[in-house]
Specification:
The chain is α/β, with parallel strands linked by helices. Helix content is 42%, strand content 13%.
Length: 495
């Protein structure tokens, strides 16, 4: 195998990211010299529809010219909180909000909306849906990115989302195999361990992935978690027992296996980027993701080439993964990107409808009716959101946005007096503890407190049973507008 031929084959096995809204010179050099054939984009790469469409077109032109193949242009456009296009195309309901509606057709609709938007700008592989089960209530990494804690429900909604997405020509990638739902440790920061027996893993974690495989999902993403019952030595991404033995041979998955980011500390701290990449490929991963630095991609390519020379990476492995990648690329639709289907009124109306259908009253003190929310209701809450490290801190004053949409007495800080009724917004953020404590104090003084979770119901756990508890599922204007509409109908608000 010649040097260029080897690089083209190895280059198809990597997906690399970069900073900024245009292709930087170092990424151009990476493609020209090392023939890297795939790219992953993040919100840092997205400024506008026009800019993103041009960026994707430029990437296709560059990579096709140097490798002879269409690139996989990947992005994490799940729905809800993990969205790279929400700020330019409109927000969508989170997976947990969709699951709360009880209707998988809503997942199909959101999957189709996401696919239409991605197809319109030139993205062809979406790193979604999340197929993890929210079985650990302290899990803030997955949280509202999960459809449910019930594996059968996750499977049904995940398959529907996948079908909606893939009907647009955009490929889906279910994540994070074999499951990230039952841990409170963020694999961006450390190596989580899930100590469950094999039978329990089969009954929970694996079921949604089995459903997705039967449903024809195009690709599956790995997770950097140690499962001693599956492999007591290394995390799933670099475990041949899990990637090849379990996913390929036992579950029969024939699609693409994509790694989670190799730079995440659960792998980085153990192996570093180059060796972590090699180990992932040897485990059975088809495309290893190096998300932040073209220089790291170049270092990984150099290391892989040396591994071929000294026998640590076989030509058989290279060829098998290469054939799977380019085989799937040959099936990509040839339709050119179009501005049609991007942020349309119909998409927005569907998102609004589904989001409102997912609002849930989770608890009413002794079954009492929800207190009326009106002009004298005090409204306050946290002003920041922090999800997994794949998100930036988001500053958004949900309380102010609610009063603008619905009414009420907005207060920047919790009241010192004792109002009759207070509506309190609680999200996942360090400042949320202060908001929770203020809500508890008001309830103890006799205020009728209505607490609204803008993440998972876990946010509401510290509150006493004297508080009404509502799940609005996500920290954005879509959830706030949905809550306003839900309350307006409940109280027949017409003004």
């Amino acid at each position: 195998m010649s040097g260029t031929d080897l690089r083209i084959r190895l280059g198809q096995r990597l997906g690399v990211g970069f900073d900024g809204p245009v292709i930087p010179d170092e990424f151009v050099r990476l493609v020209k010299e090392y023939k890297v054939g795939n790219v992953i984009l993040f919100k840092r790469n997205v400024h506008s529809r026009e800019q993103l469409t041009k960026l994707c077109a430029d990437l296709r032109q560059l990579i096709r010219a140097e490798t002879g193949f269409e690139p996989f242009i990947m992005i994490d456009e799940e729905c809800g909180s993990v969205s790279r296009l929400g700020h330019i195309a409109g927000e969508t309901p989170s997976a947990m909000a969709i699951g709360a509606t009880g209707d998988p057709e809503n997942a199909r609709t959101v999957g189709r909306i996401v696919g239409e938007r991605l197809r319109a700008v030139g993205v062809n592989l979406d790193l979604a849906p999340v197929l993890d089960c929210f079985t650990n209530q302290d899990n803030t990494v997955c949280g509202n990115r999960c459809f449910s804690s019930d594996p059968e429900t996750v499977g049904r909604f995940g398959v529907a989302y996948t079908e909606g997405l893939q009907t647009t020509g955009v490929l889906a990638c279910g994540k994070h195999f074999p499951g990230h739902g039952d841990t409170a440790v963020d694999s961006h920061l450390a190596l989580p361990t899930i100590r469950k027996p094999m039978e329990a893993i089969r009954e929970t974690e694996l079921k949604p992935f089995e459903a997705a495989i039967r449903g024809g999902i195009a690709s599956i993403m790995t997770t950097h978690i140690l499962f001693p019952a599956l492999d007591p030595e290394v995390p799933a991404t670099v475990s041949r027992r899990i990637m090849t033995g379990l996913l390929r041979e036992e579950l029969g998955f024939e699609g693409l296996i994509v790694s989670d980011a190799i730079e995440m500390k659960a792998v980085l701290n153990l192996f570093g980027i180059p060796d972590g990449t090699l180990r992932a490929l040897n485990a059975g991963v088809d495309i290893a993701l190096i998300c932040h630095s073209p220089a790291d991609g170049a270092a990984a390519m150099e290391y892989l080439e040396s591994a071929v020379r000294d026998g640590r990476l076989s030509e058989e492995n290279i060829q098998a993964g290469y054939q799977r990648v380019v085989g799937r690329k040959k099936l990509l639709p040839e339709t050119a990107p179009s501005s049609e289907g991007f942020g349309t009124p119909e998409q927005q109306a569907a998102a609004e409808r589904i989001m409102e259908a997912g609002i849930r009253l989770l608890h009413a003190p002794e079954g009492q009716a929800l207190p009326a929310v009106g002009a004298q209701t005090v409204v306050f809450g946290t002003k920041g959101r922090r999800n997994a490290l794949v998100n930036d801190d988001i500053v958004f004053d949900a309380a102010r946005a609610f009063t603008e949409a619905y009414g009420g007495r907005y207060m920047e800080q919790p009241p010192e007096d004792t109002p009759d009724t207070a509506l309190v917004f609680i999200g996942r953020h360090p400042e949320a503890d202060q908001t929770v404590n203020a809500a508890i104090r008001l309830a103890e003084r006799g205020t009728k407190v209505i607490a609204v979770s803008l993440f998972t119901p876990t946010c509401l756990r510290p509150l006493p049973d004297s508080v009404w508890k509502i799940a609005a599922w996500q920290y954005d204007s879509l959830a706030v507008r949905a809550l306003a509409g839900w309350l307006a109908k409940k109280f027949r608000k017409t003004d």
